[in-house]
Every structure is written in structure tokens, then in C-alpha cells.
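Minutes, methods subgroup
Present: GH (chair), OT, SY

1. OT presented the first of two proteins processed in the latest run. Sequence and C-alpha cells recorded below as shown on screen.
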Amino acid sequence: MSSDARPPIVDLATWQAARDELLVREKAHTREGDALAAARRRLPMVEFDGTVEVVGPDGPVPFLSLFQGHDELVVYKHMWYDDTPHQGQCEGCTFTAWNLKDASYLNARGVSFAFLTTGVWPEVADFVGFMGYTLPWYSVRDVPEPIGGEMGYLTSYLRDGDRAFLTYRTTGRGNEPINGSFGLLDRTVYGRGEAWEDNPEGWPEGQHACWYWRTDADGNSTWGETGRPTAEWTRPGAGPVTTLGRHGPHH
């Protein structure tokens, strides 16, 4: 790597002065985030039928049961490829799910968490077991919005007795707060290593967005037929592959 692709070297006092200057902007960013969170809490909400059934390990259950006695529920809606081997499932949703594998602190605050997906339950159960996920998963196949519908969304709900309400949802980069890896990468010198980022002159050329979300058996990034969602390589029995095995678009 060229020495041009590194920050300039300065003494600690000079570095601290630059760091303190940036901290002013970071604090302003935090306060704006607080203001946005306050605005979210002031959104209206949509009532829907919480008795609609979803399918989990115990068979069909009413959606209201996902609250597990709490008044609030957050879900991530995981995209799904039907009749597809594990390596063909969504790399972005795997990245999201892998970064949130425990909800103890949410539960302590009175918020439940679950994953929803449109896959048929036997396929979903097999995938969840392979990945070692312990948070609740449910199939919402053919269930209308705001429980089912389009996947890839982080969605929040409120319960008032037997009544259920949609309070918030977001997708795309709005899901980034779940992914702690993003926050850490954004605090490194070379960031996410993606072409869209604003980098100093001489920095390594970035690759396409999300390039490291899939890798092959040798750890090389690839979105080709030999790749798996990167976290899958940590799972027992995850061997080399030669196809994604997809038969159509995700649901």
C-alpha cells in the first residue's frame, strides 16, 4: 500500500486538536439524531388486526403473541428465496440478522424482537437451525401488510390490550442502526471500502457497495456462484459451493 494512502503523521497535541474539532460536528450529529427520534415518537399509527396468524415453531399463532407480553415489538422482515439452498438466501438480510442475535436489553426495556419472512415454515426452520439463530422467527407467507408485505424492512409495532398498531418502518440504509459492523467500519481509516464513499486523494479505490457481504471458501469476496453470505462460513457443515441455487426473485 502506498504511503500516500495513509493519514498525515502529527504529534499527539495536533491530533487531539483535530479530533476535538471533529467532535463538535459529531455532537451536532448526535443531537440531530435525538431530534429525529423525537419526531418518530410523534408519528401517527395505523391499527390492524393483530389476531391474524403467522407460522412459527409451534405452528400458527396470532401475531399478538409475538409481543410476548410486552407492549412494543420490533421486527426485521427477512427477504426469502423459495426452494433455495442456504447459500442462496439474501446476503443483506443475513448481514442484518447476524448483527442482532440477542434481544436481552430490548426485552428488559419492554420491547420484543422477532424476524418475519415470507418463506414457507419448513424451509425457514431449516435455515434458522443452520445459522444458529435463537431469536424468534415466523413465516408471514400470504399475510397482508402491515404484518407481511414487502420484505427488507425494520418495523415497529405497539400493542394496547388486544389491539395492534403499526408505528414505524424503514428500509435500505434506514436499517443500518441494526448493523454494528457499519458503525465500526465508519470509524476506521479506510471505512467500508466502497466506491461511493468520500475519501482523501490517494486512498485505495473502493469496490461496489456491499462487496464483502459474500465470500468464497478461500475468503475472497464474490457475488458469483461460489459465494455464500459471509457469516455462513462460520456455521458447521458450510462447505464450498458452485451455485446459489436460486430459481427466481426473492419474496
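2. SY then presented the second protein from the same run.
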Amino acid sequence: MNSTFFADTVSETLLIPLYMRAKESRRGEKAIIRDPVAERLVEQIPYDYSKFDGAVLSEVGCNVRAWYLDNVVRDYVKSHVNPIIVNLGCGFDARTQRTTIESSARYYSIDLPEVIAARDRLLPPAENETYVPGSMFDEKWMAELKSANPEAEFLFIAEGVVMYFREDEIKSLFQKLLKHFPGCEIWFDLCGTLSVKNQNKHDTVKKVSARFNWGLDNGRDIEKWDSRIQLIRQSSQGLFFRNRYPFFMRVMTISHRLMFRFCSIVGYRLS
């Protein structure tokens, strides 16, 4: 395997979805998502990925949510005149490369400085992409981004991120986005309460040090944080590519309410 220096400070949680996308991409025409960048990075980043082999639910789930959120981005770009896509907690995600449709769309990828430093070495930004080192909760980049693009229409994506923070932290993020980007949309995947409660049995999380800190079953509960928050849609990953899930998961998809207790994808408009 081609070895590239990789800082220990970069969380293992970045590597789980990266590996799952790479594995899926290698399925060729049968793949849920094609991601040659992920394939290359897995070869470059030295790590024992084999401990994640056999994690079928995470493998399918990671790729379905990436596919779903990629489509959210594509639809937003097509339906807005001056779109800016902001990837919060971007890790090693190559969403810019997967979803660039036209030159009018611009992308900002935000993560902690050590992550951006590693990303800059391994995955230099595309021509229409800017890397921002810092916390996704920092208002400094928010103010600068809005000031530099006063007429832009903003879409925020936080994939595989919010479950690692407390509810009050995510609530504060919403308040900051409401302040700086009125009219924006934010989409992310939610862990349900059953997933948080049983995370020690999770097929990949149990093998790393990170822990889920927050889960929610009903996406409408977030609307209670502020009257300016409107749920656009809450979807179950289990409704898509059902043939790829184990039988027991296909049975559970009969009940949306039950599936939401495990995971879902939500989108909100902040006015």
C-alpha cells in the first residue's frame, strides 16, 4: 500500500465513511455511489481498515446517506441562481468532485485545522472549492463568508457529524446560521435514540473511541427550538436500495416511525 504521512490527531471517524465509500465504489456499475477519490485515499492513508469489514449496516448506510445528500446538493444547485455549498465537518469527503454540475456553484469545506491540513496534502481543493480550517461553530468564518457573498444562496451539509455533539451545541449552530444566513438550508443525518442507546453494539462505532452524544427520532422536535426553523423533509435511509440491507432491516422499513429511532436524514429551511 502506498504510504502517506497521516497525523494521529485526525479522528478515526473520518476514515469509516471514507473506507465505506471506497469499498462501494469498487462495486462498479452496481455501486450506490462512485467515488474514485475515496478509492485513492484509502490506498494512500495507512490504516487497518479491515476492522470495519463485515459492518454491513454501516457500509450500506454510509453510502445511502452520501448518495442522498449528493442529490440534495445537485437539486439545490439546479434550482438556485447563486448557490454556495458549505460542507461542515468535511473530513475526507469528495462531495465537490462528485456533485459539481456547473461552474456557478461554489463549495466551502470546513473542518478542524489538522483535518484541513491533511486534506490539503491528500485532496487539494477543486477550482470552485475553498478550504476553511476551524470549528463549524465559529462565527468568524460565518461572518466572513456572508460578507464576501452577500447575494449568495447557502446550503449547509453536515454528514456524519451532529451525533458526536450535544443537543445544546447543535442548537447553538442553528442560532448562528439563523443570524448569519437567513433563508439558508441545512441537511444532515440524525441518529435515532435507539442508535445512541445501543451504540456499544454499533458495527463500527464500537471499534473506535468516538461516542454518540445526541439522538432524535422526530425531526419536528428541532422546529421547537425557534419559530424560524422549518422541517423540509425527514427520510429513512432504509427506503433506498432496500435489497442491499439484511432481511431484518428490510422488514423494519415497513414502519417509518421505527426506522427513525435508528437513523434518518433531515433537511431544514432557516428563515
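Chair's summary of item 2: The beta strands are 83-88, 106-111, 129-133, 153-158, 184-191, 229-235, 263-270.
Next meeting: continue with the remaining queue.
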